[in-house]
Design a protein that fits this description.
With 462 residues, the protein is an alpha/beta fold. The chain contains 17 helices and 15 strands. The strands form 3 sheets. It has a 7-stranded mixed sheet with strand order 4-10-9-8-7-5-6, with helices on both faces. A 4-stranded mixed sheet has the order 1-2-3-13. It binds 3-[O-phosphonopyridoxyl]--amino-benzoic acid.
């Protein structure tokens, strides 16, 4: 068969993409001057591009492909469901088998009390839906003034108007006249960057107290909810000090504020337990799930609703006026169910929380001796490394993101996908990763840090 050469196909796809595709979070003009990378295949922890280059995907796509690429079980589950009943809706007093089964499964594996699932198609939609449920709850409670949602700097919650308003990455706001009124941000428990002379434990309390001060400043009668990721992902892999979450929990309970755990990254084993809430002892009123729910094989997300809000919804005797065409899509639910079955069968949570996660964390911490690395932090199978100009003073390079980008590019060239958030190098590999593959990450990362250091010296950035 006379197949086109890969190179010619690559050029064609690059051209089609350049002419017609608006990418997420991308400078259109800058990308047009470059050649976009075309990813064509995935297996296990690896992906291949259209030129045949093999890359170890240290980011599991976007923190999502927990069971790894190329899982036939998931394709089979989709095919079976599509042939049986590709789609039906959940409006008008109907459901489908996988939808009901998945709702029950999620109720069983999430922390006690989170027994109701509202399905959506992305983390952003789930967060947006959650904001509506929070408003609904307080309106039904006869406290309609409770409207303000408090989130954190460096938080990432998605891109719909409400979710982007909650996100604390400030570049996400000006283009869209955000945040909307009623969305307020406090500091993150980012000890390495902002802890100064405090110990991590002292700083954890300090950062949590920022919530209490904000509630008092706004008036508790106006505060609806606090929304946070157990470990902050896209904002720079911020692992909270041990003192942080217990104090946050206490503050939310004291002021009656709803606590929402955005588990889009932390969920489904990433931090070594089923959910980040399990890892940190958080008792959320609502929980946001996406990504690892289907290992990103198909779009699906959920808001898990606890007793406090659940009782109001189930006891309302009125229509809850919300829902999507694809809420609880049977094919997506069937894939999610099989994905959870794989996680259970292969004990991926136990691996991330035990031997494999420990090995990953220990091996990565070896890189802390590198002249550029100020801190290695992480939990389970998620980790971040701070690239700094001065380790003793915890001082970053003058232009945030410049050196991180250099390092990321070296990683790509050397067959490793490691993401840079500002100058924090981030890893969240598929949970199926083997020891030898962890060794490959560490070896490649060290080599690329050496190359980065050489560039930094050559460019006179130190
Ligand atoms: N919450 C959290 C904690 C997330 O990480 C979302 C919500 C939104 O999910 P959707 O499915 O709407 O994208 C996310 C998504 C990055 C990156 O650059 C991270 C995400 C998405 C895109 C890029 O690290 N996280």
């Amino acid at each position: 068969m006379a197949a086109e050469s890969p190179r010619r196909d690559t050029a064609r796809w690059q051209e089609l993409d350049r002419l017609h595709h608006i990418h997420p979070f991308t400078d259109f003009a800058a990308l047009a001057g470059k050649k976009v990378r075309v990813i064509t295949r995935g297996k296990g922890v690896y992906v291949w591009d259209s030129e045949g280059r093999k890359l170890l995907d240290g980011m599991a796509g976007l923190w999502a492909v927990n069971v790894g690429y190329g899982r036939k079980e998931l394709a089979d589950a989709a095919q079976r469901q599509m042939m049986e009943l590709a789609y039906y809706n959940s409006f008008f007093q109907t459901t489908t088998v996988p939808t009901a089964e998945l709702a029950a499964k999620l109720a069983a594996i999430t922390p006690a009390g989170l027994d109701l699932a509202m399905f959506c198609n992305s983390g952003s939609e789930a967060n947006d839906s959650m904001v509506k449920l929070v408003r609904y709850f307080w309106n039904r409670q006869g406290q309609p003034k409770r409207k303000t949602i408090i989130t954190r700097r460096y938080g990432y919650h998605g891109v719909t108007l409400a979710s982007a308003s909650m996100s604390g990455l400030t570049p996400m706001h000006p283009q869209w006249d955000l945040p909307l009124p009623g969305f307020v941000h406090i500091q993150a428990p980012y000890w390495y960057g902002e802890g100064g002379d405090m110990s991590p434990e002292e700083f954890g309390i300090h950062a949590a107290k920022a919530l209490e001060l904000k509630i008092q400043e706004l008036g508790p009668e106006t505060v609806a909810a606090f929304v946070a990721e157990p470990v902050q992902g896209a904002g720079g892999l911020i692992v909270p000090p041990s003192t942080y979450w217990p104090e946050i929990q206490r503050i939310c309970e004291t002021y009656g504020v709803l606590l929402v755990a955005d588990e889009v990254i932390c969920g489904f084993g990433r931090t070594g337990r089923w959910f980040g809430s399990d890892t940190y002892g958080i008792k959320p009123d609502l929980m946001i799930l996406a990504k690892g729910l289907s290992s990103a094989y198909i779009p699906i997300a959920a808001v898990m609703v606890g007793e406090r809000v659940g009782e109001v919804i189930t006891g309302a005797h009125e229509e809850l006026v919300h829902g999507f065409t694809y809420s609880g899509h049977p094919t997506a639910c069937a894939v999610a169910l099989e994905n959870i079955a794989i996680i259970e069968r292969e004990q991926l949570v136990e691996r991330a929380g035990g031997e494999v996660g420990d090995y990953f964390q220990a091996r990565l911490r070896e890189l802390a001796d590198h002249p550029l690395i100020g801190e290695v932090r992480g939990v389970g199978l998620i980790a971040g490394m701070e690239i700094v100009a001065d380790k003793a003073k915890r001082r970053h390079f003058a232009k945030p993101g410049e050196v991180g980008l250099i390092c990321r590019n070296h990683c790509f060239e050397n067959g490793l996908i490691m993401r840079a958030v500002r100058d924090i190098m981030v890893l969240a590999p598929p949970l199926i990763i083997a020891r030898a593959e962890i060794d490959e990450i560490v070896e490649k990362a060290r080599h690329c840090l050496d190359l980065t250091l050489a560039d930094v010296q050559r460019l006179g950035l130190l």
